[in-house]
Records
---
Amino acid sequence: MKHLYLLNAFLLYFIIGTRLMAQSCTVPPGSISLDGNVNVDNPSGNYYIADGNKWTGSFQNANSSVNLYIEQNGTYSGNSLGNFNSPNKLTIYSCGTLEYNTNINAPNYIFNIIDGDFIFSGSIDNLELNVSSNGNWTGGMVTIKAGAEITMCGTATFTNLEINNELSESFFNICNGGTVNAGDFYPHGILTNDGTINVTGILTSNKGAGVTFVNNGDVNVSTGDMIINGPGYINNGTITIPGTFNAQNGTFEGTNGCFVGSMFILDQNNPCDDVEQVSFNSIDGTSAPTVQLSNGNAFDPNTCSNYLGNNLCSSLPVDLVSFSYEEAKTRDHFRLVWEAAEIINFSHFEIEESRDGNDWEYRDAVLLEEGIKNEKTGFAEFESSEIEYIQNGRYYRLKMIDLDGSFEYSKFIYVKAETEREEYHYSIHPNPNKGDWLNIDTDFPEGTIFKIHDVNGRVISVHNIETNDWNGGIDISHLQKNAMYIISFVTESNAFSLKLLR
């Protein structure tokens, strides 16, 4: 039923958008001018508020449909426009100012804000409201309730916004190019965003006929958290959260979406017991999130459809599931091996090699048709040609290239024959580390260097053991919080690495 309603909502969204483009505030000939606080008894036909006029009255004893046109500098300001019973409707075409000073429960009102301002705070029941690209809506605390149908193609600015379909299905559509600015945002109803939402925090739950939150645009949370507690959340756009993404219940999926800079907390028990599906296709690789359970248990990525911390934020139609290496038949050679999923309109992989993790060189290409589908997992499996082990080891990464030439890199791996590796003790603590200082315990020889890399392989800083800047620890206050880093220790003949979570 929810999917059927969504289809109907999208169709209505298209119809409303098409109708808005054809609307104007041109006053038909023979319309009646309104001004002052005069009420209109037994209204019928067309009325208008002329440029420079202000009307504060209402329509009384309405037994016919009425059209009201508000010219560019005309103003309506009042508490009620009167009662219209089906099949009679009041339709407003506003290019001036429409100011409504009380809650709206008007199943037979249609407000079309073509240009100018809609000024309203309070709750809306049973109203069809269409704000075109040149329209503006400003208000304090606004609640969208039962039966309301809102299409926002312009700009809306609120103190707080709640979409709450308590008794029946309502919806709020934000067009491509539309913008909603608010403080706290409570999307408890049906929301489709193809534009931009700028809020301080988001809290969602199911307060009625069902929650559906489909984001195809941009959601920017400025200071707070995003908490979901209910079904039906789909992210195909970008959600930026400086605080915490807390999935307490329900489902949250992402097809081509991106989450930037968040800490992810999954439900109260096991990763996917209450969160029935956690399927983010991409996470921002430059600020990889910390994934944890709210009860403190270890996160097991195998119980969810994707390992959240392993994906990169990109529009590439490929999901790199794993990347590692295995020995070839000849013991002095190895192959790079990897798995990929959701490959659509993808070009090819390129293998890059580096001596130090800084300077990378092209080595080989692997075409899409060289992959073999694993029937058990559904993943496409790839491998390189045989590569000879090098005495001092090498770093390797994948360059994933789309048909349009755009690309992203995998995480890097270090490969060296195990028989040649020295044995050392090395550890870092605390880890995860939210402070400013990282303690490092090693028995590496003097002259060993260690580097801090981000997950894309970029070097953040380099230090030498047993030199003036080494005293068993390092200042990490410059590293971004809620991110993952790789610490590599490089001796004369080997390299070793650890992950650091911020």
Note: The CA atoms of residues 343 and 412 lie 21 Å apart.
---
Amino acid sequence: MTQSTPPRDRDPGHDRVRGRLMQQSLAALLDRVRGARDVLPHLAALEQALGERGTAAIAGIAPQHLTRICTQLSSLPLPEGDQPLQDLQERLLNALEASRRPRGEPAFDPERTVVIREISHSEFMAAAAEEGGAQG
């Protein structure tokens, strides 16, 4: 009988290590900007939470705080080659997007997509007349 290993993203130890890497990169970023922790308290709180809970800390952030954290993080000069910070930013943006969607609703629903196209004046008048006739 073989025992399967959990996916890396679901492994709590991996999530803690990943969270600590994010914390270290965020701490270095906040250290570079004088007074950043005082001016950006949401990021300072995230820095601490990542160290304590790993990436699970992101899932526990309330939507209104996610918005503030994303805004504060985007206001800082993010180093291009810092993978943990890029991973953190991506996870925060994904969490923010998920929080704005009603539960169970997919990110994109082709049945609910509105298509806008230009039409001529005569096509518009014909559609308006048809709509008016259908209502009356």
Note: The chain has a mean pLDDT of 83.
---
Amino acid sequence: MAARENDAEEPSRAAGGCVLAVLGGVAVAAAFAVDEAVGVLGVAAVGWVALWRSARRLSVSSATPPPPPEPPSGDVYAVEGTTAREVRRTPGEGYLIFPVIEYVTDPDAPEEVTS
């Protein structure tokens, strides 16, 4: 019991959302009560603002990432070849193609890496 008494209750996000929805409904009802045109313009304005914010947020999150840096001198990296090492049929109608992979050393490297 003592542990339960010391726990601080956190407000529910759902309860906050319900309160905001009720307040928004009251505001829309009040705008329509004043005049139907005022209510329609208010709902349209809120919709445009929500659309604008969503588009702004989307354009920032879908920005093209910068290109990866060139591998430093002496690094070994994998290059997929154009020939298939193995082809497997998947449970559906598709196929998995495993390409031949070569390990390439940077030509500017001072020494050859082998393994």
Note: The mean pLDDT is 77.
